[in-house]
Design brief:
Layout lengths: L9 H6 L4 H5 L18 E7 L1 H4 L3 H11 L4 E7 L5 H6 L2 H8 L3 E4 L7 H20 L3 E5 L11 H14 L3 E3 L1 H11 L15 H16 L9 E2 L9 E2 L4 H15 L7
Parallel strand pairs: 1-2, 1-3, 3-4, 4-5
Antiparallel strand pairs: 6-7
Helix pairs in contact: 4-10, 6-7, 7-8, 9-10, 9-11, 10-11
Length: about 260
Amino acid sequence: MSRTAKHRSIGSAICILLVVPVLLACNKDPVDVEDDPLPDADLRVLFIGNSLTYTNRLPDMVKTIAEATGHTMAVGMVALPNVSLEDHWLNGIEQTILSDKADVVVMQQGPSSLPQNQEYLRAWTEILADPIRAAGGEPALCMVWPDITRVDAFGAVYQSYLGAANAVNGILIPAGLAWVHSWELDPELQLYGSDGFHPSDLGTAVAALTIFRVLFNEDVSILPDRFVPVTPSLPIVDLGPRAPFIRQAVETAVEAAGVGIRTK
């Protein structure tokens, strides 16, 4: 049976109020995937999030990088517009987690930079962590980014996702921090998309490389500028002419985070 989009819960609407106007301005469709167990692979990953995850096919980009570097990877995704972790829980994500039996479950919601939203992210991470571990997996938090008008909030977003990861002794994926370090090396990099919140193709590529770096625990500084997958339906990932800066930024971000790196 396929997963279908459902309405946000009233309780979560207040907590993600800051994010909702930006998300509603984005005319992107929700993702609908089959509710089947993940197949065998070197690494099986379930992605749970919203449009920041499904825009530009983030999970598929990670899989592309994995395949191009000699790994097999199975990915599943439950990502719908304007949803939080609470919404996923109310929509039955627990059963999906238990059925998929992923090695890692990567969770994401909005920036969650305000104090009350930090508490909210941490609380629902703790709730989802129980079935994730019951299914034999590890919980991971993928740090995202604030919208372009609030770039001063990157530090608060980092602290929010770090706090949630630490609360469950989980994995932190500092994708948003990799954006910051990329801009330190080249301020002209276009990581935001046209709406100033969702990522550009390059912004998603930076996030995907960060996820790969953490989950496979491999140095990305020696990887190529362009990744061609084995599976034809997957997207090619091209880091462009500033690839050396991006690879360095990812390594710097992961080193700075310093916690929750997955070991093989």
